[in-house]
What does this fold into?
Amino acid sequence: MKPIVVKIGGSLMESGDALRNVARALAPLWSGGLPLVLVHGGGRDINRNLQWLGEEPQFKDGIRVTSEDALLIVEMTLSGTVNKRLVSLLQHEGARSCGISGVDGSTLICRPLDPELGRVGTVSQVRPALVEALLKDRFLPVMSPVSADTTGAHYNVNADDAASALAIALKAERLVYVSDVPGVMDAQKHIVPRLNREAANALIQSGVIAGGMIPKVRSCLSAVEAGVGEVHICGFATAEGLEAQISGSVNSGTIVGV
It folds into this structure.
């Protein structure tokens, strides 16, 4: 059975109740035998921790500018606090989980993305052996997107890109992005039910798709074009609704295709 990769981010990461409901949605699917991989962001946690150090968060085209000092905070936050919080919640709901990052098992190998972004990487190679081994042994892997290059230097990798790259390498049946928005919105604030590259580029150029939605949509398109079965962008309302969305019994939000 092909795995399903789920990426969570946005304001979901700020709400304890929302994260518990995410765990409640994933646990029964895992218990039913569905192979799941969870990839997470944690941007607002990072922002808060950076501000404690007196550093103001900066972004370029929706991607976090990451200095050497900021990278330490990013890694401590994502691979430490956020990752283990999710693992604990999933285990509390009965799903045997294991927290890893892109660094572990050299799962995500990256290279620098743009000198202006600092210590930000883009995935250049995926070695899914560790994730596959965890899935084979009936674990639910929970992945932080922090990754390393071929020299062992660590980088902040956009979680949407990490999820897309991993889904491609795993030949996933479905990639589901879950956040605080119900899907891609058009200029009239209506959900776009289906989106291809031509339509996506037009919405980006017009400014309708902006900020963090730009790398998310581009990651979706890359995944579809590389053979991932389905890619969805959806919001979160209830544990039951999310469970139905991930299992494919309900298709709300935006379905991204070629």
In short: The longest helix spans residues 68-92. Helices lie at 16-31, 43-52, 68-92, 129-136, 159-170, 197-205, 213-225, 239-247. The CA atoms of residues 215 and 253 lie 17 Å apart.
